[in-house]
Amino acid sequence: MKLVFLFIPLVYLAGNGYLYWRMLQMAGALPVWVRCVVSVLFWIAAFSLFISIGLRDSGLPGAFLKAMYLIGSVWMVFLLYSVLLLMVSDVARIFIPSLGPALKYAAPLAACILLYGYVNYRNPKVEHIDIVLDKPADGITAVAISDVHLGHGTGVRALKKYVDLINRQKPDVVFIVGDLIDNSVEPLLDEPFAEALDGLKAPMGVYMVPGNHEFISGIEACESFLAGTEIHVLRDSVESLPCGLQVIGRDDRSNPHRLSLEELLEKADTSRPLLVLDHQPYGLAQADSLGVDIQVSGHTHRGQIWPLNWLTDVLFEQSHGYRKWDNAHIYVSSGLSLWGPPFRIGTRSDMVVLHIYGSEPE
Fold first, then answer.
1. What is the pLDDT of residues 121-162, one digit of tens each?
2. CA distances from 129 to 121, 149, 294, 330 (A)
């Protein structure tokens, strides 16, 4: 795992170095001072995302940090597709030498791909799934979402649109399966995020489990912020809903001392339907074998952009979507919003509406 964390920055640096070299080749006829200015802007863009994250609690103006975050996140995806298209263009020039500098084709095509990815991201898919259980419970409609990443990436305006989309489903209960907050609670204190979250309408309540980004942001600070909203945070606890559903909210794997699923099941009424909320979709086969009826997870984003979706499909037992296991109905959301780059390429943002029906009491 340590090698992976070392490998990714090296690949990112190599990609930037390659694109910078090709840019200098194309700009060779420009005055030196122009090339110097372009070089400075290039490397600011390349590192601005990391600068914004590193300075997130520095007290610098939020508008500056948000701008750096946006520039850097857009740059990451532009870099990926520019490098891929440059490689394709280089191969094409072997057969068609008259094509000229590859960058003049690669950069506009990459920009078009990003435009498509942005429009795709802004139109999340609403998945409706009927689940019939063999345990007694009243029928309910539950909306489950994950990975909203509120902060510099997902602002108040986007949050309000998500809240309206959720309320249009007329849910009895709403489940937020981690990573509601992005990298820090600080941006959420400067704008009416809490007020927007309280716009969620669900008569049985809004329940949330933390994700790894709540721990990145500081779990105590996140809990303090959420305490000022109507959201009920579940950390290794069980909540019984009026319909008979037992909601088991697991703390994130970022907490090395979180309870095991077996320990949590001991707190629940296992004669009733068991619904587990767990941000990271690990141990799904175990959850199925222990008699969990429904589990909702998130975290994967399904890679968010191609070709990273191929990687998440390999890394996780179930990287996204719905699957009926031997016993459990499991849904892994690719995220209502996303982290970093505001693009969905080869994936879709989503939320799931679960229509849950229990059996009649004997």
1. 999 999 999 999 999 888 999 999 999 999 988 999 999 999
2. 22, 25, 12, 11
Q: Taking each helix axis from N to C terminus, what angle separates 2-26 and 103-121, rounded to the nearest 10 degrees?
A: 130
What is the side-by-side strand order in the sheet with 294-297? 237-240, 246-249, 274-277, 294-297, 329-332, 321-324
C-alpha torsion 237→242→244→250, nearest 10: -20
Helix axes 103-121, 62-95, angle to 10 degrees: 130
3-state secondary structure of 241: coil
Mean pLDDT of 58-65: 78
307 contacts 77 by C-beta, under 8 angstroms: no
Comparing 357 with 2, which gets the higher pLDDT? 357
Residue 183: what pLDDT? 86
pLDDT at 60: 77
Which tokens sit at 261?
Answer: 């699923």
Q: How far is CA 32 from CA 37, 179, 273, in A?
A: 9, 46, 70
> What is the C-alpha separation between 180 and 47, in angstroms, rounded?
25
CA distance 38 to 40: 5
Residue 293 CA to residue 343 CA, distance in Å, equals 33
Q: With 70 as the cut, is the pLDDT of residue 102 above it? A: no
> What are the residues whose beta carbons fall under 8 Å from the beta carbon of 112, sequence distance 6 or more?
none
Tell me the two tokens of residue 216: 């990145």
Distance CA 155, CA 245 (A): 33
pLDDT at residue 31 tops 90 = no
Q: Do residues 344 and 156 touch, judged by C-beta distance below 8 A?
A: no
Element (H, E) at 142: strand 140-145
Question: Which two structure tokens, joined as six digits, stand for 326?
Answer: 């031997």
Tokens of 293: 């009826």
Q: What percent of the chain has pLDDT over 70?
A: 95
Tokens of 217: 């942001």
C-alpha to C-alpha distance for 278 and 272, rounded to whole angstroms: 19
Asked if residue 332 lies in contact with residue 347, where contact means CB atoms within 8 angstroms, the answer is no
181 three-class SS: strand
Tokens of 334: 């690719």
